[in-house]
Amino acid sequence: MPDNAIQDISWPLTRTCPMAPPAAYAELRQGPPRKVNLPDGGWAWLVTKYEDVRQALMDPRFSSDDTKPGFRGRIQLPPDRNMNSFWRMDEPEHGKQRHMVMTEFTARRIKELRPRIQELVDDLLDKLERLPRPLDLFTEFCLPLPTLVIARLLGVPESDYLTFSEQSRLCLALDAPDKALAAYQDMTAYLHRLCEEKEREPKDDLISRLITDHVLTGELAREDLVPLVRLVLIAGYETTTNQIALSVLSLLTDAELRATLRDDPEKILPFIEESLRFWSVSHDNILRLVDTDMEFGGARMHKGEAVIVAIPSANHDPSVYDEPSRFDISRDTQKHVAFGHGTHLCPGAPLARREIEMAITSLFARFPDIRLVGDPEKLSFRDLSLVYGLNELPVTW
Q1: What phi, psi does 173 have (nearest 5°)?
Q2: Which of 300-323 are b and which e, b meaning 16 or more Cβ less than 10 Å from the residue's Cβ?
Q3: Is the dihedral of CA 277, 246, 30, 65 positive or negative?
Q4: How far apart, in whole angstroms, are the C-alpha atoms of residue 380 and residue 394?
Q5: Which of 117, 129, 180, 362 has the fewest CB atoms within 10 Å, counting from its CB?
Q6: DSSP letters of 146-214?
Q7: Strand duo 43-47 + 306-309: pairing
Q8: Comparing C-alpha atoms, which of 380, 377, 386 is closest to residue 175?
Q9: What is the DSSP-derived secondary structure letter of residue 14?
């Protein structure tokens, strides 16, 4: 049987350890891309090697357009397939919409936002001090911080923050497709109303600027506004939430690592990059479609076939990272693909890095003796979601 034939490999792969990607990646990286069975009865190519993953992410022969026949989705979408964001577009449409939001994530803009982010961090830490302990740090800190940041950026009223947080999480849940679809539709309806309000009364926020600078000028179609806003909202909050929580967990379970950051605060930046590589929270949501018959990575692929690009596998490829299962902040992580690669590199990466840095630095400065409550091996992780993470993080101090 050829190496790329289906051999009872089911996707998503199962993790044998919550602190590491599925062990099956080690074997899968030994040969060309393989075919894996999907829950809907179909199949897809699974790209696992680091170099193949980087190539697939920037190769125009792989399409991101999920309106094309054969594209496999991990979550059920409404019948209206015209509600796509630029995440699911090819060039030149992708680049055109991406450029419209990039101004919000430049180094200068992030620097301007820093005082506002610090204010949110400090307010949440003040609240933590008043709460009875032990408490769930995920619910009380890791979750609300990115929600508050991205909601303020977009101009979402504070009274709607909690609703948005819950809807976003439900949209990415794989174990409750009916709830995911309902949340997707509710969020879309709400964003329509919010965008209409911003058009009537524009303010100093991203939605208002998108309307004023791009919709009213005819550069952005009105029907494309909500999908664009929805992408910024979900992507800007969900991944950062889980990355903050897992980064904190890394420090709570490694006294030596924690001492290193305490003694040398400048090591926070290499710590963040290693944490991004190590956890790779976008664990199975990078999908593509073969757009033309081709040879790729030693496999013969045909137009219309589905492809899964395995970010965690690439970031744990031993040909690139020595002992990849070891958390090592001294390693060179410059080329990790936690934020993607190529034209679809996450535009919000600079903001995410800044939030993670400020959250971790401020948390451990305020509560230097914070510690995990209970057995780390009994923590509950979010396997059935497009973004990997924790369900809770019980702590005390």
Answers
A1: -80, 130
A2: ebeeebbbbbbbbbbbbbeebbee
A3: negative
A4: 11
A5: 129
A6: HHHHHHHHHT--GGGHHHHHHHHHHHTBSS-HHHHHHHHHHHHHHHHHHHHHHHHS--SSHHHHHIIII
A7: parallel
A8: 386
A9: P
CB 389 within 8 A of CB 381: yes
> Would you state the structure tokens that stand for residue 36, as one six-digit string?
């894996």
Q: Which residue has the tokens 């948390």?
A: 363
SS3 state of residue 262: helix
The pTM assigned to this predicted structure is 0.92
Instruction: Give the strands of the sheet with 43-47, arranged side by side.
Output: 34-37, 43-47, 306-309, 287-290, 62-63
- Scanning the structure block, which residue is given the tokens 């899964």? 308
pLDDT at 5: 60
At 245, is the secondary structure helix, strand, or coil? helix
Q: pLDDT value at position 83?
A: 58
pLDDT of 296: 98
Confidence at residue 55, expressed as pLDDT on a 0 to 100 scale: 97
Here the tokens at position 214 are: 């791009």
